[in-house]
Amino acid sequence: MTPRTQSGPRARHHLPAGSAASGPYTLDITPERARLDWSSLRVLPLAPGGRHTFRTGDSEWIVLPLSGGCSVAVAGETFELTGRADVFAGVSDFAYAPRDAEVTVASRDGGRFALAGARCTRRLPARYGAARDVSVELRGAGSCSRQVNNFAAAGAFEADRLIAVEVLTPGGNWSSYPPHKHDEARPGEESELEEIYYYEIAGAEANPAAEGLGYQRVTPSGQGAGTDVLAEVRTGDVVLIPDGWHGPSIAAPGHDMYYLNVMAGPGEDRAWLITDHPDHAWIRARWEAESPDARLPLYDSPPEAPR
Length: 307
Hints:
Layout: E1 14-15, E2 27-29, H1 31-34, E3 39-46, E4 50-55, E5 59-74, E6 77-84, E7 94-97, E8 102-107, E9 111-119, E10 127-129, E11 135-139, E12 146-152, E13 163-169, E14 174-175, E15 180-181, E16 183-186, E17 190-192, E18 194-201, E19 214-219, E20 229-233, E21 238-241, E22 245-251, E23 257-264, E24 275-276, H2 283-287
Antiparallel strand pairs: 1-21, 2-3, 3-9, 4-8, 5-6, 5-7, 5-8, 5-9, 7-10, 11-12, 12-13, 13-23, 14-22, 15-24, 16-17, 18-21, 18-23, 19-20, 19-22
């Protein structure tokens, strides 16, 4: 892949693949490194037989296989994660690790593993999340159809601050639409949550080796630092969203788009409450007369996850 470089104020919000690597991680986003307050995301590749140990510190973490399977040893427990071939192949099981703990991730056959984290206060028990329990939701309709894997959504899995979901968008569709925000605390109406988007783009059906792309837009909302991003995104890229209206996320025709959303914020009530952009919120009413894209779901939760 041809390296992509940026300059100017937008550059710190769009991180091309490989630009935020550190140590064993091909991606290492922490509050200190990314000028965020709460959210973290790392991608850990492991060769066959590989293992890696880290301390959770003041954050809670979820270990989510992107490809391959692994074991996760934490707080006297060991969780065996079956994982998946890749993010376009199926829902994955996962493991939750509390703050102030030591975690060891080991993989017999190798793979890549997302470590999604959030600074937190409470120390909750280490737990296993089964793939069969992950709610697969279809959102939108027509060309705005997408699939959401709510593995660690608010209300779906207990955590102190961390919220995380996966979104799959068929090629040619728009997701994260209408543009919305969650950058100010308005009880019962909107949550204050910063967000990380991590992308993977599928190859074309006629040429699986072809490199796909997508686009991400973020516009200032009047809150925070006035985040403003228009980014061409490819596999391994990240967009940081401390504030602002975010969306659309656009998948190029012929290339399905995956992104992992990691969110956290200061509110004691762990909730995902959003405000739609007033110029575009009308699109939701039109969906009532449209059907979801027939390509969705790309897959569903398994009836029973092997252990």
